[in-house]
Design brief:
The protein has no helices and eleven strands. It is mainly β and 116 residues long. The strands form two sheets. Strands 2, 4, 5, 6, 9, 10 and 11 form a seven-stranded mixed sheet that branches. A four-stranded antiparallel sheet has the order 1-3-8-7, with no helix packed on it.
Length: 116
């Protein structure tokens, strides 16, 4: 199993960012994909998840209205987009496969820096 994420991003406050996660080594539609992030000096924070089979999503209340998660099943790729970026959105963003109730494989992480 491999989850390969897109590269680091630098954005200004108020803009948006989209991070990709390309999966391989398993049947993409058989497992939910979650997105979590880790801000400097803090623990992992769950953002949301998607079922690639039917596109169903659910998100942490904190991010409702600012985050969207989509998939392209033809390329086994998931995307997270965060809008109206704030300085405190600076973090490393991870995709992770949800296997049997827990996150069992993680991408390598994507640094998103929000700076004016």
């Amino acid at each position: 199993v491999q989850l390969v994420q897109s590269g680091a991003e630098l954005r200004k406050p108020g803009t948006s960012v989209k991070v990709s996660c390309k999966a391989s080594g398993y049947t993409f539609t058989s497992y939910d994909l979650d997105w979590v992030r880790q801000a400097p000096g803090q623990g992992l924070e769950w953002m949301g998840a998607i079922d690639p089979e039917d596109g169903g999503t659910h998100f942490a209340q904190k991010f409702q209205g600012r985050v969207s998660v989509t998939v392209d099943t033809s390329t086994s790729t998931a995307y997270v987009e965060l809008t109206s970026l704030r300085l405190e959105d600076t973090a490393v963003y991870y995709c992770a496969r949800r296997g049997y109730g827990h996150l069992d494989y993680f991408g390598q992480g994507t640094q998103v820096t929000v700076s004016s």
